[in-house]
Amino acid sequence: MSHVSTSLIPPQEPPPAPPRPFTAGRFFGNVFMGVWLALTIGIFLMLVEGWDPEKFTRYGPNYLSGLGVTLTLVGLSVVLGAVLSLPLAFARMSKNPVFSWFSYGYVYFFRGTPLLTQLFLIYYGLGSFSAELKAWGLWWFFRDAWNCALLTFTLNTAAYQAEILRGAIESVPRGQHEGAAALGLPKKIAFFKVILPQALIVALRPYGNEIILMIKGSAIVAIITVFDLMGETRRAFSRTFDYQAYLWAALLYLIIVELLRNVWAWLEARLTRHLKR
Amino acid sequence: MSGFFTAIVEAVTAALGIVDPLCGPVGIFTLFAGDTLLACGDTGWGDEIALGFLVTGSLALATLPVGLLFGFFIALAKQSEERSLRLSANIYTTLFRGLPELLTLFIVYYGLQILVQNAATAIGYQGTVEINAFFAGMIALGVVFSAYCSEVLLSAFKAIPRGQYEAGHALGLHRGRTMQRIILPQLVRIALPGLGNLWMALLKDTALVSVIGLPDILRQTGVAARVTKQAFEFYAIACLLFLILAFLSSLIFSSIERWAKRSEAAR
């Protein structure tokens, strides 16, 4: 047994990893990252080079007030739209064909036409009926572009939210209704305590998307002379002809949308933590 | 060559003139609005609005293939093994899904103008450069569409099991062939509803291009509304035309969906 070696070979280093192949994907990835980097640096240099404290003190507060107008408009219209969407969603689900067809038509109209067209229809279109509106004492409302924008956005988001709500309520399985009925719960309590909480969890993500869409869509009120963030941007651009005006607005919009998106992701994770497995 | 193109354009225009749904010989405006403000010709606004209808439709149709193609490649980039490729694709979508479409349009329109102007000055061209509003609109809408489209396609890609790729590999198909013959047909089927929604959004976003001066439905009806002082009627017509477009596309999409599902087993 002399030829059995008694000493073991000491542990060796693993062989070196083969070099990563330089694939087409890697090439394009590097190129695109380079493009983004160059754009970022270019925009940064543009902002630094064109930095003008005088312009900043002059237009900075305008941007903030514009941001306030945007957020107020969107916040108010989303809340009012949520209120209006309740009867619409129930009308759509009702067995009465008159209600259900009315709601269907409403939703089809507001989802099938551009927000901008709806805004023009209400602001300029109803404006041509100023004599009638004055006679009814409603002219003070429709005279103001901000009110018209609020009305349009409310009606528009109500249509979208009604669809979200209807989809969410119909996504709750029948067994839940039957279970509540078997427990002897009245229909109303069953709806508020059993159906709605489950439906709202389903609706959470679409609601977040809808708010983001409204924030982005609200930029069009600048066209009917409401000075929201976009309106202030256009005003600053038309006075200075400085391209930076748009870049600052883009930055602000991106920050709001990303903030909202992250808050929503956190909210969703928090509210659905009992569903995690 | 240019004569050839002119001939094609003329032929297409003539063909469209016959089947023109609004102002042709059997058009809606010609038949039902002969002596109203919507008449075609010099007495009414029918032909202007018909042009707007055509512009809106062609802008959306021209944007669609560009957006689809870019969206497809971005979706591929997002599921690449290469980190830098994934990251750059994600930056793209975050950027263009977060910006308002109107702002993207302005940034593209004025930004392109500045870029082209600077480039023209650099090579010694003196004079102002005008960017075509149709082109700017196509780029801006295409960019937004591709960002959303990549998300839809990515989730469709994720719905296709790995085994499908492996089966293609086992059959000895090339990677491109696997994509073309096995993955794409299933991808289309899964992604169609999402793409249909995106098409509707695109159709509605074309209205924004009226702001930079393209004579689309909204701009033409807006001009008519300002001249005739009958704003409500004309904007209502604009809404109606968009509704018609939406209705037509929903019909077309449902038939495409039926076509895509023709070989699917009945459940």
Automatic annotation (TrEMBL), chain A:
Say yes or no: keyword Transmembrane helix present: yes
Q: How does it sit in the membrane?
A: Multi-pass membrane protein
- Record keywords: Cell inner membrane, Cell membrane, Membrane, Transmembrane, Transmembrane helix, Transport
Q: Does the keyword Chloroplast apply?
A: no
The name of this protein is: ABC transporter permease
Cellular location(s): Cell inner membrane; Cell membrane
Q: Which family does it belong to?
A: Belongs to the binding-protein-dependent transport system permease family. HisMQ subfamily.
What domain of life does the native source organism fall in? Answer: Bacteria
Q: Which organism is it from?
A: Shinella sumterensis
Q: Name one GO cellular component term.
A: ATP-binding cassette (ABC) transporter complex
From TrEMBL, chain B:
Which keywords does the record carry?
Cell inner membrane, Cell membrane, Membrane, Transmembrane, Transmembrane helix, Transport
Gene Ontology terms for molecular function: transmembrane transporter activity
- Coarse class of the primary localization is membrane
InterPro entries for the chain = AA_ABC_transptr_permease_3TM, ABC_transp_permease_HisMQ, MetI-like, MetI-like_sf
Q: Which domain of life is it from?
A: Bacteria
Q: What family does the entry list? A: Belongs to the binding-protein-dependent transport system permease family. HisMQ subfamily.
Which Gene3D superfamilies does the UniProt entry name for this protein? MetI-like
Report what the protein is called.
Answer: ABC transporter permease
Question: Which residue spans traverse the membrane?
Answer: 12-33, 53-77, 89-111, 131-154, 234-253
Q: Which GO terms describe its cellular component?
A: ATP-binding cassette (ABC) transporter complex
User: Where is the protein localized?
Assistant: Cell inner membrane; Cell membrane
The yes or no answer to whether the keyword Cell inner membrane is present is yes
Pfam families found in the cross-reference section? BPD_transp_1
Write down the membrane topology.
Answer: Multi-pass membrane protein
